[in-house]
Amino acid sequence: MKNDQLKPATIAAQAAGATDKQTGGVVPGIHLSTTYQREPDYGLTRPDNVYGRDQNDTVRQAEEVLRQLENAAATLLFPTGMAAVAAVFRALPDGARAIVQSGIYWGTLKWVRDFCARRGIILEEVEAADASALTEACRSSADLVWIETPSNPWLKVVDIAAAAGLAHKAGAVLVVDATAATPVLTRPLDHGADIVMHSASKAINGHTDVLAGVLSCRDQGAAMWQAIAMDRHDAGAIIGPFEAWLLMRGMRTLPLRVERMCANAMAIAQFLDAHGGVEAVLYPGLESDPGHAIASQQMRGGYGSLLSVVLKGDRAHALDVVGRLRLFHRATSLGGVESLVEHRHTIEPHTGIPETLLRLSVGIEDAGDLIADLAQALEGA
Ligand SMILES: *Cc1c(COP(=O)(O)O)cnc(C)c1O
Prior knowledge:
2 domains; seven-stranded mixed beta sheet; Cys/Met-Metab_PyrdxlP-dep_enz; PyrdxlP-dep_Trfase_small; pyridoxal phosphate; cystathionine gamma-lyase activity
């Protein structure tokens, strides 16, 4: 059976067939060498291995797992999600036009604004979850359309296939940050995206102990992908072999973790939605959510582990609730096996995040325990 026909659970559990060829080990080794030998005739012992800045078998194996999970032509790992974001924008020529979804991950927006200003790139921030706004923005030609679905922390859902159609008509490449979905729930390339990006520091690794980013493409020969690959090779934004190995270990349970996290998140969203102290729950899994219909089309097997809840009352009350939580760790980030809570307004006070919004990253703990913790925190001391 061709590996590309296997289901995600099999690809992940067996790390896309990686074993240790030298020892016969079921688990592959970690290759740390920064340089590679040449033969007496000065030919390379392995023609694809010259120097460790871009050529490492452990990194390649982790990339192969992700390539198969994404159904991609090629995959490149980066030392962080932001390094992957930067690699895409650095591939744009000066004076390019980039359409970027508004209200997405703040780290991306902040860096992109600064970078585009310095490089003379025309940046247009558009509410891409609103089809008419994206249609309007794509009327003039563009080089790049960047969307994030579901978005962080607003949980807005963008129709990837529709966005791909609009981007391509404008002559642009569509890149999708699918960090909150993971390749288990959504494969953006199957919906027409050109490149998919993830912060692998989140659910893909899942254990809150590796920083990594990843890009995968539909067409390896495309000019933008070639530029990205050359930039990684020449500029050296490469993940270390130890991180790549840990990532591969984490990914063995990715489909299993995502399944449990989605079930927990749905149970929590429903509990919060019915709670008297709650103003609104932002989660595409809820039928009342504006993104539910599109999410149901392009997400398979669940709606993700990220959700936001807007509480009734004021900022002080919201912070009190956060302070009373015992199981949810008060910390940024998402996608780990342990649940996290974040008061986003404290982190980005000037971007329109409500003072009573709490962002929850739901882990794999017992759903009943998590709900009981939220219940006691909402009731008060
Ligand atoms: C965390 C995150 C990033 C940045 O990734 P790092 O690995 O932290 O650099 C980008 N996009 C989204 C949606 C994220 O959640």
